[in-house]
Amino acid sequence: MAGQVYLTREGYQKLVEQIETLKTTERQRIAKAIGEARAQGDISENAEYDAAKDAQAHNEARIAEMESHLVDVAFIEDMNIPSDKIFIGAKVKLLDLDTRQEVRYMLLSPQEAEFGTDPLSVFSPIGQGLLKHKVGDEVSITVPAGIKKFKVLEITR
Q1: Mean pLDDT lowest for which of 41-45, 102-106, 125-129?
Q2: What domains lie within the chain, and their CATH numbers?
Q3: Which of 111, 119, 120, 144 has CB atoms 3.0–4.6 Å from 105's, for a disulfide?
Q4: Whole-angstrom distance, CA of residue 16 vs CA of residue 10
Q5: What's the Cα-to-Cα distance from 121 to each of 91, 112, 127, 129, rounded to whole Å?
């Protein structure tokens, strides 16, 4: 079991749609590639056949992994999360204290961070560093490129 996965309803729907695409469109594309490779004759030394079978295995593993995320979903919108601190589901406006530029992020689960606008995984270095901070806090976060300094300007849900 994958454990609890925290998603927005929108992220859940996108995940369901992506799984459906992998099960239909992608499976059909891979099956066609396997059929075309088989038609070339001896499959024992057929690179196209091997590549298509590898793609099939990868696709099936991806489907299984994504479906495992749906087993124990908790919807962020249903959770009683404080709105005055940064937690999963928060939309934050920050001031980068080095560049003086404003940046915006929405903190999401890793499963959902690839969707949406300006997503940021809560498990990324910046996501971890922002957790539990309030408006007005100045935060220094160690990232692979060095230290990023932010001031929290706004938190919304």
Answers
A1: 41-45
A2: 5-75 (1.10.287.180), 80-156 (3.10.50.30)
A3: 120
A4: 10
A5: 12, 8, 6, 11
